[in-house]
Design goal:
two-stranded antiparallel sheet; 261 residues; Recoverin, domain 1; 3 domains
């Protein structure tokens, strides 16, 4: 939940079904995780209550959301970050419109970076809070109606192009914007120009590992034929080379940074 790791891996089901045998494992695992990841006392208390064996004693969703650990994160007036998030939310549509105008390859690289970076880094604190503001139900994804309701809630007119913006962010075409897809659009310059992230994204796209992103690479990434016209056009957007390929240096410049190494 908080660590991204299984709570009790490879524990036989018959053991888990018996509280008298499993509660000590639960307690030890939580204590170990708390020490390793530095959980606060409130976080430990919430996890302990939610992960106890007796399902009747576990808190309801409402009780869990009203726990001090969660309530502390909503002390809006005393959080400078909250004011920053409000401003970002007001600029959200304009920011998304700007990303929509970027070359396709840059948007693909943004997604690769969003998948590769640690989503808990401090540089994404504001973006995480904005997503939480929109995702009022805590499902971890946004629908078009949820986004529309946010405008209505704030007394702001719903943008006429909201449908087009939403579709550009709905990468899976399932009617929802995932957290990672949201981060890909909102990825700050400090991360887009991060050398390690640039190298990871470039490596993902450079399937031939020859130091260039070419049509053959994109064909593999997108599942197209090697002579794909779409892949050729995608590269033409960003490459000035006659052979239609993108070097590491040009890739870094595309992502908005200076040449790194």
């Amino acid at each position: 939940m908080l660590t991204g790791e299984p709570l009790l891996p490879e524990v036989p089901p018959e053991v888990l079904r018996r509280e008298i045998r499993s509660r000590s494992m639960l307690r030890d695992t939580l204590q170990s995780a708390a020490q390793r990841f530095g959980f606060s006392a409130a976080a430990q208390e919430l996890l302990t209550s939610m992960l106890q064996h007796d399902r009747h004693a576990r808190p309801t969703v409402r009780e869990a959301l009203n726990h001090s650990f969660n309530l502390a994160s909503y002390e809006k007036e005393r959080m400078p970050l909250f004011k920053e998030a409000l401003k970002m939310r007001e600029r959200l549509v304009d920011s998304c419109r700007a990303v929509m105008q970027e070359p396709i390859l840059k948007r693909v690289a943004r997604l690769a970076m969003a998948h590769s970076c640690d989503i808990c880094v401090e540089e994404l604190a504001t973006e995480r809070l904005v997503f939480r503001m929109l995702d009022r139900h805590g499902y971890g994804e946004l629908s078009i109606s949820v986004w529309e309701n946010d405008f209505l809630f704030r007394g702001v007119s719903v943008p006429e192009d909201l449908d087009a913006i939403f579709e550009s962010m709905d990468l899976n075409r399932d009617g929802y914007i995932s957290y990672v897809a949201f981060l890909a659009f909102m990825l700050p310059f400090t991360l887009r120009s991060n050398e390690n992230l640039c190298k990871v994204a470039f490596s993902i796209l450079d399937r031939g590992k020859d130091g260039y992103i070419d049509c053959a690479d994109l064909a593999v990434v997108f599942g197209h034929n090697e002579d794909s016209e779409m892949c050729r056009r995608i590269l033409q957007e960003v490459s000035e080379e006659v052979c239609g390929r993108l070097s590491w240096r040009s890739f870094v410049q595309l992502m908005g940074g200076e040449f790194l190494s």
